[in-house]
Design a protein that fits this description.
The structure is a homodimer. The first copy, chain A, is an alpha+beta fold. Chain A has 8 helices and 10 strands. Chains A, B: InterPro entries: cNMP-bd_dom, cNMP-bd_dom_sf, HTH_CRP, RmlC-like_jellyroll, WH-like_DNA-bd_sf, WH_DNA-bd_sf.
Chain lengths: 240, 240
DNA sequence: CGCACAGTTGACGCACATCAACCTGGGTGG
DNA sequence: CCACCCAGGTTGATGTGCGTCAACTGTGCG
């Protein structure tokens, strides 16, 4: 595991190979030219209601899908890791019913034309690969609903840490028990449906239990089995 | 709006025409022979971890997707209405990471062979139709996450009622302000991530505010605009 | 060196959970 | 046809996990 950011800018080469290989079935994309650009923390990759042009692939950093309620309440509905498609199904048709924002400074690949809808005849392999990703996204969404509805704050937090480790390990960005996580407690709170104050207290608990340490953006699972047990984590939903 | 059930058995013809027409793009399915069978309340249409054979279409009644945690906690991750595919993406490959259960007695259509994966070359229209449904399912899941994480109990309940009205109206099973809803408070609780006692109190509040009545399985929205406002309901996520 | 943002902590309040008792209506069987 | 039965609904009393408010502390960056 290496830091993506040395100093201010992500000038150290992001681990592209692993990420690109994560785009397995979407390999055709790699052939296509896609333009990389940097997005600052807090910026939107896709605004709510926008009709996205093409596809956005996250290459380095973390983005999220989120929705706002009129009075300022925010719910993050997905946290994306390198190799993920930010606006997976938004590109399929119509305007997005969610926004995509950057949780850290990140590097995003942009494919201007939409290769799914534009290609005629439809690229079958691409479509199949897309279906697999849609399916995985939905499985993750289901698991988040379980956390939001039926897990306690500390269980939800532990579960999120376990899920992210698995997903990051899939693209070579996590070891067996650690990874880089530079997301603020405010953002974690909006993902878990609680307040940042309570995220802080739950983190403290996990630390006191000797399950994790989280310092300077590096998460270490000191006792991963115990953490997974506390979280009621069953990774089968993440398998292809 | 007519009752599906007269007496004990759903012998009155379910509103098949509307439901079938809801299968728009999946019209090819209608050509195929699919076997109808009845499922009693509480029975599973698909068990957790099972590899589903073919597809299940809900024709009458309500089913749900749900997940159990080891200690008995349950979270319903989707409520399905006639015209919906119960195991939409489960059929695409592999074992289901959720179960599908009947919330009321229902009528389910079963297509034994999987027309998506088996057909070679892939049926493009069918696939496109399936993508649209996947996309809608995911939009609904996102909105549920917003409810679970950021709406109060009464707002979530109101929102669910609004969502179901829209979805049922799409298949001709709801008027502008009423529909049949024979789901128990226990099931509503597991969908909303709260307890049935609290569902009861939230319902009482909505009744006292003059927004709804719910008697003998008939939900009437006495003041739909006010209900939608309370729920922070924006139906755009349900549009195709 | 100091600003600004993120994290930390304590006191207190509320939404929702828990427990337990009681009600209600429609289905069933004698 | 009535009397029972029991799942589901209703209500009150009390407990608690998380929210709110507010002050303070670290830490990275200009």
């Amino acid at each position: 595991m290496q830091s993506i950011y040395k100093g201010k800018l992500p000038l150290s080469p992001p681990p592209k190979l692993a990420v690109i290989s994560a785009l397995d079935g979407i390999g055709t994309l790699v052939g296509a030219k896609f333009r990389e650009h940097q997005v600052d923390k807090g910026q939107d990759v896709l605004r709510f209601g926008e009709v996205p042009e093409g596809l956005h692939v996250l290459i380095a950093g973390h983005t999220c899908r989120y929705r706002m309620l009129g009075d300022g309440r925010r719910q993050i509905t997905a946290i994306l890791v390198p190799g993920d498609l930010c606006d997976l199904e938004a590109g399929l048709r119509g305007r997005a019913d969610y926004a995509v924002g950057a949780l850290t400074r990140c590097l995003v690949g942009h494919l201007p034309a939409d290769p799914i809808c534009d290609a005629k005849p439809l690229n079958q392999e691409l479509l199949a690969a897309l279906l697999i990703r849609l399916r995985r996204d939905e499985a993750i969404a289901r698991e988040w609903m379980v956390s939001l509805g039926r897990r306690s704050a500390i269980e939800s937090l532990a579960h999120l840490f376990c899920e992210l480790r698995t997903r990051l390990a899939d693209v070579g960005l996590a070891t067996e028990d650690s990874y880089e996580l530079r997301i603020t407690q405010d953002d974690l709170a909006d993902a878990l449906g609680i307040t940042s104050v309570h995220v802080n207290r739950a983190l403290k608990q996990l630390r006191e239990y000797g399950l994790i340490t989280l310092k300077r953006g590096i998460l270490v699972m000191s006792d991963r089995p115990a953490l997974e047990k506390l979280a009621l984590f069953d990774p089968s939903y993440l398998q292809p």
